Amino acid sequence: MITKFNVDNVHFSIDVAQDTPVLWVLRDILNLTNTKYGCGVGECGACTVLLDNKAIRACSTPISMINNKSITTIANNEDKDLKKLQNAWIEEDVSQCGYCQPGQIINALALIKQTPLPSDEQIIFSMNGNICRCGTYNKIKTAIKTASKS
Ligand code: FES
Ligand code: FES
Known about the structure:
By secondary structure, the protein is α+β, with helices and mostly antiparallel strands.
């Protein structure tokens, strides 16, 4: 069955089994590898993308869920909020190995689109579940604050 969708404002139309996870489509079919594969079972957040401004886990979302919809990844270069977050991440020197950070930033993007000036508690609540093995959690919180004030 043909599925039609946008990724970062580019239109795609592909014929793929409807239960294929979005992450597999992005990485293996479309070769859009900026969105990362971590656990593959919805537990780590490395694969987070926005589906119409809500954070979803691409490894656990079937392609049927995005038919005629738009997703945003870390590679989007038109989203102003995403740009603010990326700049804040650099300013606060957040990343260590960097592997989790695309998912962290996209999850933060969903937060500031819904809550432009989040409190510490709202940041901790919203980012809970996005795992960072390098322990960058405090810097992530600071960067979200920085971005939200810019
Ligand atoms: S790879 Fe999707 S939640 Fe871990
Ligand atoms: S920066 Fe290494 S896992 Fe998060």
